[in-house]
Amino acid sequence: MSIERIEDFAAFEKLRSEWNRLLDESEAPTVFLSHEWLTAWWKAFGKVANGQTAQDDAGLYVWIERDETGRLIAAAPLMKRDGIVQFMASEDVSDYADFLFLPEAGSTFFENVLNNWRERGDVFPADLINLRELSPTLNHLPAAAEQLGLNISFSVMEWAPVLRFEGAYDSYLSSLPRKTCHELRRKRRRLEDLGGIRSAVLYHPDDIAPAVDRFTTLHRAAGPDKDRFWGAANMPRFFKEMLVSLAEKGWVEMLELWSNSSLLASLITFVHGRETALYNIAFDGRYSSSSPGLYLFQEAIARSLQNQRPVIDFLRGREPYKYDFGAQDTRLFRLSIPLKRNEKK
Question: Are 198 and 258 in contact (CB under 8 A)?
Answer without folding.
Answer: yes
